[in-house]
Design a protein that fits this description.
The complex is a heterotrimer of chains A (400), B (245) and C (402). With 400 residues, chain A is α+β, with helices and mostly antiparallel strands. In chain A, 55% of the residues lie in helices and 18% in strands. In chain A, the strands form 2 sheets. Chain A has a 6-stranded mixed beta barrel with strand order 2-3-10-5-7-6. Chain A has a two-stranded antiparallel ribbon with strand order 8-9. In chain A, strand 8 and strand 9 form a beta hairpin. Chain B has 7 helices and 11 strands. In chain B, the strands form 2 sheets. Chain B has a 7-stranded mixed β-sheet, with helices on both faces. Chain B has a 4-stranded antiparallel β-sheet with strand order 2-1-4-5, covered by helices on one side. In chain B, strand 10 and strand 11 form a beta hairpin. In chain B, helix 3 packs across helix 4 and helix 3 runs parallel beside helix 5. The relative contact order of chain B is 0.19. Chain C has a 6-stranded mixed beta barrel with strand order 2-3-8-5-7-6, surrounded by 4 helices. In chain C, helix 1 crosses helix 11, helix 2 packs antiparallel against helix 9 and helix 11 packs antiparallel against helix 12. Classes of the chains: A alpha+beta (400), B alpha/beta (245), C alpha+beta (402). Chains in contact: A-B, A-C. Chains A and C meet through helix 2, strand 2, strand 3, strand 9 and helix 9 of A and helix 2, helix 3, strand 2, strand 3 and helix 9 of C.
Chain lengths: 400, 245, 402
């Protein structure tokens, strides 16, 4: 039998029993819709989180003291008696080929006081390069000047929210800020940056790293961040930085992580989560498949007569098998198309109703859904189709 | 009467020592017990006998719907006894046509589609099919009923569709099992005349019937009882006489 | 029609079509089994986490240095310095609080431990003798830190099981010396293995007196202070008192964050509980699909049994009786499938428990009831339409068509 004829035959059979066929493919549709919706949400979250990270700039390599980070244990920024990262280390890294910015970082939590107002805030000790490396923008005034680490003057640059809390709408430039007993002069205010996974980036104060280390009585930096030129290889830069530090420290008692590695781990986790959720939705698909098996079994029993006729008319058994298999596949694929439409529609609706929840329907998953539905139809239809093709024509003709 | 095995014209159908046994519960039924039969091309044969005599089994055997437990079946010079199911299907498709008592039309297909069914199964392209179906519809007087479904046709029209379907592949043999059983007498007459017309065009016609009047119209009559052919009669001037003593 | 007859009618109908009945039950079973197994998994996780948290010590109040205006817990507040140190004396002062039973100050950092020629970086915790009681650790060998002046410390160390295995693979650890920086510590105890758990895994810790740790890291401020309240009711008062004492000592500044272990536990409990609910919800979608199948099959069944229904009506059955009969059939099939699924789900949970013995994977009662209930309701709901169709059949036409 020619393929188009077989398809038409299957189509007519399905169309002859509209309600039944619709309910059967509705089962698959529900399953597929669930999977599409869930993976859309998963993908949306994935993109959202990656987007949040990328606001820091993508060509960044992070270095922290000790190898605990490499082993994955413990929170970073702990005090350590392992050889600390120093401002001199940061300076040395400036000469690594490909590096266009070095930010030694020391951070902590302190109280900022200005004009009688008090506010507890996060204090970042950084260098002039922080502006570029962390993708920040100055709204008023300037950022920290690029002077030698030890001579760093007690300047402070405020985040948008901090400025507003302490100075309201007044000009803050030139004002004095007391942080933890030390006095700093405001030389700039940053443009609002927003939140990062819940952390308010605008409620921060930026001072020179050397001053921050004094403030929090630290011997070493919390970490050093490098940014490298577009086109330079992250691996190469990381390796070069490692070499420089190793020479200075005598051995590798620090950890270098490229942003790729950081994002990679996160990406993997998110992907696994999305797949797990999709697997949950697939349980519905399984039930839908059972539905197809059931209906095809009924169909074969009902059309035993017709099968006998086809055999009498000279149809090879293989044709009978393919006809019924084809019906199962058509049902499944139709169901999946309906499911994709419904799932996609629901995802869109959610996007409109809850803008806060990121939703994005990934095309590969859609294609996968339709393809797997064809496979489901095939598998579900196999047993009933085989039974159909094995009927004895005489018996079949006799039955009613 | 023994006939030399190497005869001038080889028979179209040759059955030798055909046996068919059914096991129903504990009992054993010999549906066909040692049947020998020679049929030349173009013959018009009626197969008659009481119920259980094996007529339908014989027809199924001839139509390659069933396989004998013993014996040989040669069709157009070819031993078809041991063909695989798919090979049998092929022979059925090309050489044999069936007409059933209850028509056996596919309810959801139109008359035209029902007639086209054997060609669709054989994999013929639609252009060729449409042409032949059109001719068949015209030939059988069904042109204005082409798009109607079986439940919209009268009994006679349905049987005509069935006969059109049975002959669309131009088979060598036409097997009819009680073709007028579900029709009134007038319509039945029309149908039989149709079959006889086809026979006149050269198609071998076998009709299973219990209607004596129908049986009388054939040129050869097989009377079956208990799975064997008791009498093999040919019509000679007005009456039937046994072909051999 | 009497109930036992109704049931018999339904069972007879189900028996009449074994394959169809089996497949229908399978569909329902998959849905219920999924709900049961997945909620067992989710609830197991919840209970595991809660249990681990409780194992950290009971009636715990934790003081962390640093605070942001927004309050609460965020990455910024966990590891930061403040201009005003959280000192050992602060911790000592907390003992004055009436609701407080015990206090254990913590100073934490990473350092290099050297034994013989071996070098190994590890987390060093500085604390006091109370630490083992507050955290309810168990010793494998020797003893924990001695009770002594918190501001002075003897050069002794207690190590975790894994550290011991790595540093002293072939010999006894007790009495040996470990060099950290330019100090030598004598090992006086080894902790029992704790395996993986939340909070700090002690297997890789090296515990020394707090004052020595602070000197080692050259810092005057503590990582946190663990406070054990006298009993459950004393937790809240302890929280207030502790915050008050620190504030007084810090010149009226509220520069620490005080959280109760309960609060953290409650957060996790709620989080995991919601997660389990979500997972169960997704699995329950399959029950809806099973319901659709029930409707489909029953519609077919009604169509095929037209003559039977026509006959029943001709014999005097009312529309209501017919409807009831088919509803009972739908309910019976769903119930049977659901029970079968429940058994499957329990088996699944048992397998999980066998593979991960520390995981208490038991399906919570609410989930079982919800699953079975939903299955039954879906089955009956989707059986309504076919039952109505059956009840509405006209006996004459139903019987006429053969």
């Amino acid at each position: 039998m020619i393929a188009t004829d077989a398809l038409r035959y299957a189509w007519r059979s399905i169309g002859a029993q509209r309600t039944r066929s619709f309910l059967t493919l509705a089962g698959i549709a529900v399953g597929i819709a669930a999977v599409i919706l869930l993976t859309s949400i998963g993908e949306g979250i994935h993109r959202f989180v990656l987007g949040e990270f990328s606001q820091f700039g993508t060509n960044v390599v992070g270095i922290s003291a000790g190898r605990m980070a490499a082993r994955g244990g413990g929170p970073t920024g702990l005090p350590t008696s392992v050889r600390p990262l120093t401002l001199e280390d940061a300076q040395a890294l400036q000469h690594v080929p490909g590096v266009i910015g070095v930010v030694p970082t020391a951070w902590g939590n302190a109280e900022a006081q200005a004009r009688g107002r008090l506010r507890r805030t996060i204090v970042y000790g950084v260098s002039a390069d922080a502006l570029a490396v962390f993708n920040m923008q100055v709204a008023v005034g300037q950022f920290l000047p690029g002077e030698g680490a030890d001579e760093a003057r007690s300047f402070v640059v405020l985040g948008a929210k901090l400025k507003h809390e302490l100075f309201g709408n007044d000009n803050a430039l030139g004002e004095r800020l007391r942080i933890g007993g030390q006095s700093f002069r405001v030389i700039g205010v940053l443009a609002p940056k927003g939140q990062f996974l819940g952390l308010d980036l605008d409620d921060t104060a930026f001072v020179p790293a050397a001053r921050a280390m004094e403030l929090f009585n630290r011997e070493g930096l919390s970490e050093i961040n490098l940014s490298y030129a577009e086109g330079a290889s992250a691996k190469a830069v990381a390796a070069a930085a490692e070499a420089v530090l190793k020479a200075r420290h005598g051995r590798a008692d620090f950890t270098v992580t490229t942003q790729e590695e950081m994002l990679g781990t996160l990406s993997n986790i998110l992907d696994i989560l999305t797949m797990a959720v999709a697997a949950l939705g697939s349980i519905s698909l399984l039930v839908g498949a059972v539905g197809i098996v059931t209906i095809m079994t009924i169909a074969v029993a009902e059309r035993t007569h017709e099968i006998g006729l086809l055999l009498a008319l000279g149809s090879p058994r293989g044709t009978i098998l393919r006809l019924f298999l084809g019906e199962a596949v058509v049902l499944a694929v139709l169901g999946s198309l309906l499911g994709v439409a419904v799932g996609f529609g629901l995802a869109r609706a959610i996007r409109l109703l809850l803008p806060a929840l990121p939703v994005s329907t990934p095309l590969p998953y859609v294609l996968l859904a339709v393809a797997s539905s064809a496979v489901i139809g095939l598998l579900a239809g196999v047993l009933p189709a085989r039974r159909a093709s094995r009927l004895d024509p005489v018996e079949a003709l006799r039955s009613e | 009467m023994a006939t030399p095995s190497a005869s001038a014209s080889e028979a179209q159908i040759e059955l030798q020592g055909i046996e068919r046994v059914f096991h129903l519960g504990d009992s054993v039924v010999h549906a066909l017990a040692g049947v020998d039969l020679r049929i030349e091309a173009g013959e018009y044969i009626a197969v008659m006998g009481p119920s259980g005599s094996g007529k339908s089994t014989l027809l199924n055997m001839l139509g390659l719907l069933d396989r004998p437990d013993a014996g040989h079946y040669r069709l157009e010079g070819r031993d078809v006894t041991t063909l695989s199911p798919d090979e049998q299907a092929r022979v059925r498709s090309l050489r044999i046509g069936f007409v059933f008592q209850s028509f056996h039309l596919v309810p959801r297909l139109t008359a035209a589609e029902n007639i086209a069914l054997p060609m669709v199964l054989a994999g013929l392209p639609s252009r060729e099919r449409d042409e032949r179906v059109r001719k068949a519809l015209d030939g059988f007087g069904l042109a204005d009923r082409a798009e109607h479904r079986p439940d919209q046709l009268s009994g006679g029209q349905r049987q005509r569709v069935a006969i059109a379907r049975a002959t669309i592949m131009r088979p060598a043999v036409l097997l009819a099992d009680e073709p007028t059983g579900n029709l009134d007498r007038a319509t039945g007459e029309d149908v039989i005349r149709l079959l006889e017309q086809l026979n006149a065009d050269g198609v071998t016609l076998l009709v299973v019937t219990h209607d004596a009047a129908l049986g009388a119209r054939a040129r050869r009559r097989l009377l079956m009882e208990d799975g064997a052919i008791r009498h093999d009669q040919r019509r000679l001037d007005g009456g039937f006489h046994d072909a051999h003593a | 029609m009497r109930t036992p007859d109704l049931l018999a009618f339904a069972v007879g109908a189900a028996r009449g079509n074994r394959v169809r009945t089996a497949l229908l039950m399978l569909a329902m079973a998959i849905g219920v089994a999924a709900v049961v197994t997945l909620t067992a998994l989710g609830d197991g996780a919840r209970r595991y986490v809660v249990r681990e948290f409780s194992a950290i010590g009971t009636n715990l109040v934790i003081v962390l240095p640093g605070r942001t205006e927004t309050g609460g817990i965020n990455p910024g507040s966990f590891v930061s310095g403040t201009p005003r140190d959280l000192t050992v004396d602060d911790a000592l002062a907390l003992l004055r609080a009436p609701a407080v039973q015990r206090v254990a100050p913590l100073a934490v950092g990473t350092s290099e431990l050297s034994v013989g020629g071996k070098l190994r970086e590890g987390m060093v915790v500085g604390s006091t003798a109370e630490f083992i009681e507050v955290r309810q650790f168990k010793m494998a060998q020797g003893q924990f830190l001695p009770r002594e002046d918190w501001n002075r410390g003897s050069q002794v160390m207690v190590i975790g099981a894994k550290l011991r295995a790595e540093l002293f693979p072939n010999e006894a650890a007790l009495g040996q010396f470990v060099r950290v920086g330019d100090r030598r510590f004598r090992i006086i105890g080894v902790l029992a293995p704790t395996g993986s758990g939340l909070g700090m895994n002690t297997d890789e810790l090296a515990i020394v007196p707090v004052s020595l740790a602070q000197a080692m890291f050259n810092t005057n401020t503590l990582f946190r202070i663990l406070v054990e309240a006298r009993n459950r009711n004393a937790i809240e008062p302890a929280k207030q008192q502790v915050a008050g004492i620190i504030q007084t000592r810090h010149d009226g500044e509220q520069d620490v964050t005080v959280i109760t272990q309960d609060a953290m536990l409650a957060t996790f409990d709620k989080l995991l509980g919601t997660l389990t609910l979500g997972v169960a919800g997704i699995a329950a979608i399959s029950l809806a699909v099973a319901g659709i199948l029930v409707m489909n099959v029953m519609l077919v069944s009604v169509a095929q049994r037209r003559s039977e229904i026509g006959l029943l009506k001709a014999l005097g059955a009312s529309g209501g009786t017919i409807r009831m009969a088919f509803l009972v059939e739908a309910a019976l099939l769903s119930a049977a499938g659901a029970v079968f699924g429940y058994a499957l789900g329990l088996a699944g949970a048992a397998v999980i428990r066998a593979l991960y013995p520390t995981f208490p994977a038991y399906p919570p009662d609410w989930a079982v009831l919800a699953g079975l209930g939903t299955a039954l309701c879906t089955g009956v709901l989707f059986g309504v339409l076919p039952a109505r169709n059956a009840a509405r059949l006209d006996p004459v036409t139903a019987l006429a068509r053969r």
